[in-house]
Amino acid sequence: MSNLYGFDILQNNGVIRSMADFQGKVILIVNTASKCGLTPQFEELEKLFQTYQENDFVILGFPCNQFEQQEPGTGSEAEALCRKDYGVTFPMMDKIRVNDPKPHPLYAFLKEAQPFQGFDASNITGRMLKQMVKDKYPHLVTGNDIKWNFTKFLVDREGHVVRRFEPETPANEMEEAITELL
């Protein structure tokens, strides 16, 4: 598959939605967790969404419980918390698996399209994440798997995955790449 429009995703209300519904939009796909040290990124992401949504930009949040059980509830509970505590208005989908043993096909596609390039060693959060993954998830050190919550994939208007941003990347460092596609 050359773009992500052939994938289906599940909304929190149980309705299956096609990624083709987002055709023509610039998309930022994020695996999220409401009980993570990086959870405050929701505020930055919401600001990006509010700034650019009128230019056909959308963020899709996918709650995930694969890292230290930092998303223990249902997808609906995660969405409610994000809306209440962080003012999130961008679409939040149902919980998803991003890594083995059975990653969602969308995430298998994303990881293949934009491999892991390493954590930012100049960023203290990047250095901490690198050490934490090494200590707690040594099987994730190599390869293209998602290493932690808030890994972000930027998709152009044709559905091609053009960039991968690791968890430590703040929204302001992604903004230029986003605006180039709008």
From TrEMBL:
GO biological process annotation, one example: cellular response to oxidative stress
Cited Pfam families: GSHPx
Entry's Gene Ontology molecular function annotations: peroxidase activity
Similarity comment: family membership: Belongs to the glutathione peroxidase family.
PANTHER family linked to this entry: GLUTATHIONE PEROXIDASE
Tagged with keyword Oxidoreductase: yes
Gene name tied to this protein: gpo-1
Annotated protein name in UniProt: Glutathione peroxidase
InterPro entries for this protein: Glutathione_peroxidase, GPX_AS, GPX_CS, Thioredoxin-like_sf
The organism of origin for this protein: Salisediminibacterium beveridgei
UniProt KW Oxidoreductase keyword: yes
SUPFAM superfamilies in UniProt: Thioredoxin-like (SSF52833)
Keywords: Oxidoreductase, Peroxidase
Active site per the UniProt annotation: 36
